[in-house]
Specification:
single chain, mainly beta, Porin, 8-stranded antiparallel β-barrel
Length: 172
């Protein structure tokens, strides 16, 4: 588990090294569906939002950001589990090629998640793509495989998939 934590810090350090100067601030809001590695729950429905700053160059763009999310999972019939809610916040480091219309990003996240009284370290890779309709507004798609880690060895996996809007903040 320590190796995973060190790898996550390394991904964030890579994003920080690309963040030498603030050139663009982007934000977005997405509807998302989430899957837990637990047959007792239906896919969750929720929302996520992010704010990130990127520095662009001839080779691409990279930067750091914050992402927050909330999901609600309904228990499957026949199981004794109750419905649960999950909320969390994560620091993200992303980078990728920078073009005028299509802006794919690959990176990772480290954060905190809470589910019905349980606290988790939330780590994993992030894949994001924006299709810019204008220089400031576009569509955003995000896939985030997640490993939820806690101290009592009840770790589990999940995946979040979101689709929404993104925009570059004017004047930032």
């Amino acid at each position: 588990m320590r190796i995973l934590k060190l790898a996550a810090v390394g991904v964030l350090a890579l994003g920080a090294s690309a963040y030498a100067g603030l050139t663009t601030v982007k934000t977005g809001l997405s509807a998302q569906t989430s899957l837990l590695n637990d047959d007792a729950y239906h896919a969750g429905m929720g929302v996520n939002g992010f704010v990130a700053s990127e520095r662009g160059s001839d080779r691409g763009a990279g930067g750091l950001g914050l992402r927050a999310n909330f999901d609600s999972y309904q228990a499957q019939p026949g199981f004794t589990n109750k419905d649960i809610q999950e909320g969390g916040v994560a620091v993200t480091a992303m980078g990728g090629p920078n073009s005028r219309y299509i802006q794919p990003r690959l990176g990772g996240h480290v954060g905190y998640a809470r589910q019905e009284g349980n606290n988790y370290l939330d780590v994993g890779p992030d894949v994001q793509a924006a299709l810019m309709m204008t220089p400031r507004v576009g569509l955003n798609a995000l896939v985030t495989p997640t490993w939820f880690i806690n101290g009592d060895k009840t770790d589990y996996l999940g995946t979040k998939m979101g689709l929404g809007v993104t925009w570059a903040v004017p004047g930032a």
